[in-house]
Amino acid sequence: MKPVRDKEKISRIQSIMRREGVHALVSHVPENLTYLSGAWCGRGLSFVVYPLDKDPILILPTGETYPESWVSDIKWYTHETFQHTGNLLDFAAEKIKQALAELGVPSSSRIGIENAWNLFLATPMRYELNVIDGIALGRRLQGYLLKDSTPLLIEARSIKSSLEIAALRKASEIAQVGLQTFQDRMRPKIAEIELSAEIEYDIVTEGITQRRASQVVACAFVASGPLTAEGYKHVVGNTKRKLRSNDLVMLELDVTVDGYSSDTTRTFVVGRPNRKQKKLFDAVLDSQKTAISAIRPGVRAAEVAGISNDIISKHGFSDYLVHRLGHGIGVSPHEPIPALHVESSDILLPGMVHSVEPGIYGKRIGGVRIEDVVLDTEAGGRYLSEFPRVPE
């Protein structure tokens, strides 16, 4: 569905810009571009000029397929033809300066530009993503007072508007297609990579053909048997190993739908869980439910994380704790705020969306993680989607 003008989000961004004395934002980080304009660009070579009190201007390279956006003013730049090539930033910077002038932002104004960013949203063209050097771009905007907008945008993104929550709920609902495939097709002798491919295929196909999504990216990581003990590591599984009866099987599932993300994990068993496996599931599910029940406006994220860890310890698995309880989710599957960790200084507030993903891992016991996307409300934490969390 085509992005619409989000008045609630715009008001929040402008309020923070006023507080920080920023007259305009010049954004190039792909996930921030999506956040500010709704445009989910494929190449990572686009820009948005976002003034304090007017609608923004979107600047795209001519090699970009036109992305859907609520922004009506689109400028195009060409830095290379079959005859000539040139420095991309030189061409883009000229368009940016023209846009700033057109929007009435004088050259002495304070401009926010991203000088620091660690995580990037997956694009529809996930096999290629160009990353612009923010400092090099800033050198081409001489005369403006430049301010690092990274903290500003991190803060703005931490509280979701009603339209953003709807987009995140839709991403979670489409992700459930993959969870169902995982549950239905998990069987002995299917390889991890075969199951992963079936999950991704079903999500993308059904998301676009039946659930009114324009673009979907699905990344499924299936780890089985001994590999589940390393399920907390980045990109574990998807090997040619074939599932066996009584295996623990963990699915880490990241799905992005029209620029907004879902991050879910399920651990099931090939067949029926045995007594030892049931103890693992009971501990992790108890930890997740208890932590979510402790969420309320103004509670410290560290307190919620500590409650989760305490439950794991009461079940006798404290030696198998490895990672934090959760992270923010929005236009990226991993956002900095809130960080659900025992050393976090974040306060949970209505409108925050984050994972709650307790897990335990060990060579002797294997690995079990249950991860869901949770919305913080005035009444407490609420799941954005429902799907069985332990083997039925």
In short:
By secondary structure, this protein is of the alpha+beta class.
What is the topological layout?
Elements: H1 7-20, E1 24-27, H2 30-37, E2 47-51, E3 57-61, E4 73-77, H3 88-102, E5 110-113, H4 134-139, E6 145-148, H5 150-158, H6 162-185, H7 192-209, E7 216-224, E8 248-257, E9 260-269, H8 275-293, H9 301-314, E10 326-328, E11 335-340, E12 353-356, E13 359-362, E14 366-369, E15 372-377, E16 380-383
Parallel strand pairs: 1-5, 3-4, 5-6
Antiparallel strand pairs: 1-2, 2-3, 7-8, 8-9, 10-11, 12-15, 13-14, 15-16
What does the model show?
It is built from 9 helices and 16 strands. It has helices at residues 7-20, 30-37, 88-102, 134-139, 150-158, 162-185, 192-209, 275-293, 301-314, and strands at residues 24-27, 47-51, 57-61, 73-77, 110-113, 145-148, 216-224, 248-257, 260-269, 326-328, 335-340, 353-356, 359-362, 366-369, 372-377, 380-383. Strand 5 (110-113), helix 4 and strand 6 form a beta-alpha-beta unit. The longest helix is centred in the middle third of the chain and has 24 residues, at 162-185. The mean pLDDT is 95.
Low-confidence stretches: none
Largest sheet: 6 strands, mixed
Strand content: 15-25%
Please tell me how large the radius of gyration is.
22 Å
Order of helices and strands: HEHEEEHEHEHHHEEEHHEEEEEEE
**Mass-distribution shape:** globular
What's the domain count?
Answer: 2
Which structural traits does this protein have?
alpha+beta, Creatine Amidinohydrolase, 22% strand, globular, three-stranded antiparallel beta sheet, six-stranded mixed beta sheet
